[in-house]
Amino acid sequence: MIDLIAFRRSLHRYPEPGWCEYLTTAQLVEALGALNFDVEFGPTIHTVGERLGVPNGEVLSIYKQKALERGADPKVIDVIGNGYTGAIATFDTGTPGPTVGLRVDIDSNDLIESNDPNHAPVMGGFASENYGAMHACGHDAHAAIGLGVAQWVANNFVGLSGKIKIIFQPAEEGLRGAASLVDAGMLDDIDKLIAIHMRAGMPLGHVECAASGFLASTKYDATFCGTASHAGNDPEAGENALLAAATAALNLHAMPRDSRGISRINVGVLEAGTGRNVTPDKAILKFETRGSTSEVNEGLGERAKCILEGAACMQRVEVSSQIVGHAAECAPDIELATQIQDSSTEVAEVDRATIAEYKLTGSEDAMTMIKRVQKNGGQGTYILFGSEKKNGHHTVEFDIDEKVIPLAVSVISSALKSLLKEEGTHESVD
Which of 104, 212, 336, 415 is most solvent-facing, going by the fewest CB within 10 Å? Predict the structure, then answer.
């Protein structure tokens, strides 16, 4: 039996950001193969042009080398190559039936984890050893849950029909990883898709079976290129990229909102300049748009493009922009959510199972996947599991109550029993 708590703690100790999940992928490939799953990984599960926000080669090489030093299979690392991380594991029960997918994400956040002696990972000796990377959103637990479900399937597939497909998705943070898998057709055979997430501050034992409200979002990096000059001797020779970026930042926030739905815009990063007496010749602006529909979100993007070009023109500089992350909006299928709510009553640790009680206004890569499944005639939903701890997601003190891991495995396993029950079988969940 796989020790899921130990597995989660190992991932927490060695977190890997998006497209750098070499060790995580290698460990999953090995464990899933031992469970007799058909495991796909590497470039074949991705579309090259749709991998968004891939780090530079130096960063990828650092994490690749760390994975090898920590015992990753060199053959697996070689297949992963330049950041083609993640894995898709499929189990065929041998009996005709639908295909149910489970999406779990595996990447970490760009944070320096707290070294407070009262922080549970510090006390337990599994705080991050990859400086600048931390599992601050529960994806280490998600990966452990996915592996736990795989273990349950391997031991309990008799009486089930159809196929179970577990998607261990890379690069969810920044909405960078789903498009590559979707465009490669990795979800086109799925009839019902379940995506999961921890929820800080939500009581342990509470399961939200149809979280909703996620916004469509696009992440942009804009680069302004001007001409450097001495700010005192010949300021007229300079073309100030910083001023162009600053003008763009202010006017992006001054955009009118859209009456068709919720709209959001935020400039989060502006990097420019080399010295106080030098006209800045380069500036990088990182911003995002969000909308309750793709139309609203895309409308903001079009206006943003005009603002970038106008700001560049004012300072006689050049500007280019690229999309480094994107996710769609979609609504959960209540019919599927209700089936999961009903089956969760078999799990003793579940105190409450609700539908559409939690409405979030963030964005989620899984929505791109669910939307593709729905477009193909299938159903999808997004489940939140209460993980009790009060420190919020994406903070350096984030942690979970690890009892949520076996609870989530039981809830999903119970759902699979219901969704894939073979005719004439009435077995209970182990």
Answer: 212
